[in-house]
Amino acid sequence: MGNVVAESKVDFGAVAVLHKWPSLANQRRPDRASYQVSEGTLDACISAFMEKPAATRHLYEIRTAPQPPLVTEILSPEHVTELARLREFL
User: Fold this and answer.
1) For tag attachment on the chain, is the N or C end more exposed, with fewer CB atoms within 10 Å?
2) Percent helix, strand, coil in the chain (nearest 5)?
């Protein structure tokens, strides 16, 4: 991923939405739809996600316009954590 990062620029000002999945016993409910928690920029949604307790981050995802190759339409918790770590370099 090193070369991809070096050659990629991510628009952290892009519109994004933080979603949360309903849960039972701290596990996603697959029979329920996720719901919007906040809307703003990709940067603001990443910050809001990182403020959540680490033990519950798996219940969240960020939805935004794709920015290949680093940003997909739906960002998993692992992907958001990695973008948060790399955002000062992108």
Assistant:
1) N
2) 35, 30, 35
Q: What is the sign of the dihedral through the CA atoms of 9, 21, 57 and 77?
A: negative
Q: What is the DSSP string of 9-32?
A: ---TTSEEEEEE--EETTEE-TTS
Q: Quick one: pLDDT at residue 7?
A: 59
Name residue 21's amino acid: W
pLDDT for 89 beyond 70:
yes
Of the candidates 89, 90, 83, which has an alpha carbon nearest to the alpha carbon of residue 61?
A: 83
Percent of the chain scoring above 90 in pLDDT: 86
18-45 per-position pLDDT tens digit = 999 999 999 999 999 999 999 999 999 9
